[in-house]
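Subgroup meeting minutes
Present: P.N., E.W., G.H.
Scribe: E.W.

1. P.N. recapped why we're keeping a running log of single-chain structure predictions: easier to compare across weeks, and new members can see raw inputs and outputs side by side.
2. G.H. added today's entry (334 aa).
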Amino acid sequence: MVTTTAQNLRVPHSGSSFRVSALGGGHGLKATLSALRVIAAEHLTAICTVADDGGSSGRLRRDMDVLPPGDLRMALTALCDDTDWGRTWADVMQHRFSSKEGVCGSLDNHAMGNLLIVALWELLGDPVDGLRWAGALLGARGQVLPMSRTPLTMSGLVQPDDPGEQPVRISSQAELARAGTLGRLTDVQIHPADAEACQEAVTAIELSDWIVFGPGSWYTSVLPHLLLDDMRTALYETEAKRCVVMNLTSDLAETRGMSPADHLNVIAHYAPKMHIDAVIADPGSVRDEDRSAFADAAQRLGAEITYARVRRQDTPAVHDPLRLAIAFNEVFHG
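Output recorded in log:
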């Protein structure tokens, strides 16, 4: 295992012919897509989790028995064309309604994009067709797919920090996202266990040159793709190379107390046959005393670590799209 450092801020080569599939959800996947569109816009696929049960997405899936649209919406906005048209539609998709003071309205906190996506699903009768039409409207560069056409739920066992307390089973993605404040998550599962992966997503994985995992909520955005049998098998068998992008901080409500090595060990535990080719980490996100364990965890996965300054200077907790694009470009080209 070799560790390299990406420092050169030259503009990435935009004529890449790589086919890239990015797996995840929420703000983490949006960060990855914002970077990848710079170097792989013509052959870019976002594959999103569909287990969200909180906020606007949770209300819609409960009320209308549909996939939770929130992560899919965020992926679409990340792929909007960088024109007045694309930027305007990205703002429209992200707009959330709020009633006047003193009124609790039924549209409160619903994202406009969630409602648009659900409307397309009802009219067209298929989630993939609806997302394709939404992407065309936004001028999206790339495609967005759900990991399954079946709405999924997640559960996990929380091992309390106090050894005198009993483990607690949590059965909600929204609650799992805060589980790190209670203890360490174990035995994470997806339900229904026999749900089928979206065939278009499986095909995209099979045809990819690179698969990208992360950054994002490790258990509720990155891990779900490894828990769905059909998708895990496709990820095992694809000839694509695999890249993991680390979070900029481990101090999150979901993974509090976990080191960068612990994050990689989660992948090794739930997908023991998974080979990872590359890991991208900001040097400031791995403490000196953690680097040896991090290197060992990467080596067990077969991965080479690339340390690259990928955080925004003005907002250190957020990935900078251009810097991340440069890191991807260097990793993809060896």
